[in-house]
Amino acid sequence: MDILTGLIIIIIVFVLAFKAVKILRPYEKAVVERFGKYQRTVTSGLVFIIPFIEQIRKVDLREQVVDVPPQEVITKDNTVVVVDCVIFYEVTDPFNAVYNVVNFYQAITKLAQTNLRNIIGDLELDQTLTSREMINAQLREVLDEATDKWGTRVVRVEIQKIEPPKDIVDAMSRQMKAERMKRANILDAEGYRQSEITKAEGDKQAAILDAEGKAEAIKKVADANKYQEIAIAEGKAKATIDVYNAIHKGDPTNDLLAIKYLEALEKIADGNSTKIFLPTEVSGILGSIGGIAELFNEESLNKKEVETISSPDKQVGRIMEKAIEESEEVPRNNEN
């Protein structure tokens, strides 16, 4: 009997110890209640409570996820879209999380759905599809403010999908395809335009380079011709000077000059064309006749006598006719 009593006492002590000692993990906090009334909040570690008098309620402090079910939402331009999102939250105050909300998961889900309808209802379809970041920020702000009294903090909200109706999707697909075709055509036109501009610039540059090359070549040829003409002229000038100096230093006689004169006439007469030679004596006679004629003309102008003008003119005419006849006889004699 004593052994049974002792065994019962040991079992009771063991049960009381099990009920009195609780272990909280590092990410947990707990609320201790005594006779159903809040007593204290305990942190992680070993916690002692009074069995059957005190009760402990644990709260997870880690970040948790709530998947909001998809729902149909009407946009500002009366388009029905299906939207769903996920909410990330964490508990900051175990007391409020335990005593201020019954079912936190259901409460935050319904709150997210109603506020999501309000936010998207103020946007048109195009804005809804392109304003995910704005929707996320507004929804997180509203939920964080509403759940503050529940002892939680909404970390972030992410829109998973926004699904328009099938006909809208088809229309958007056609619009996107047309826009892509338009961009492709624009890019092709721009590429062709750029290639033509580049080609024209290349042709222009080639023509400029070709013209510059030709101009440079012409300049070089002109410089070469100029140098050649200068060299030839300088050579001829030097040769003439040398011949002149040689002639004067040699002091040629009249016989030698006459022979050179005849040799020059022989070279001039060589050929089939008709030639007329006037010896130096005839040239002197003609020069004298011209001087006499000018003398008579001056005397006639000074005296202003009309009657005396005709007789000298006739004499000059006869003298000139005689000189011409003599000049014509000289080539005949040379040819004979």
Query: What number of structural domains do the residues give?
Result: 4
Order of helices and strands: HEEEEEEEHHHHEHHHH
Q: Biggest β-sheet, characterized?
A: 3 strands, antiparallel
CATH architecture of the largest domain: 2-Layer Sandwich
Q: What is the overall silhouette?
A: rod-shaped
β content, as a range? 15-25%
CATH fold-level label of the largest domain: Tetrahydropterin Synthase, Chain A
Q: How many E-type strands?
A: 8
Task: Output the radius of gyration.
Answer: 66 Å
Adjacency order of strands in the biggest sheet: 3-2-5
CATH homolog superfamily of the largest domain: Band 7 domain
So what's the CATH class of the largest domain? Alpha Beta
Report mean pLDDT, rounded to a whole number: 79
Topology:
Elements: H1 2-20, E1 21-24, E2 28-34, E3 37-42, E4 45-48, E5 54-60, E6 64-74, E7 80-91, H2 94-99, H3 104-121, H4 125-130, H5 132-146, E8 152-163, H6 166-250, H7 254-269, H8 280-303, H9 307-335
Antiparallel strand pairs: 1-4, 2-3, 2-5, 6-7, 7-8
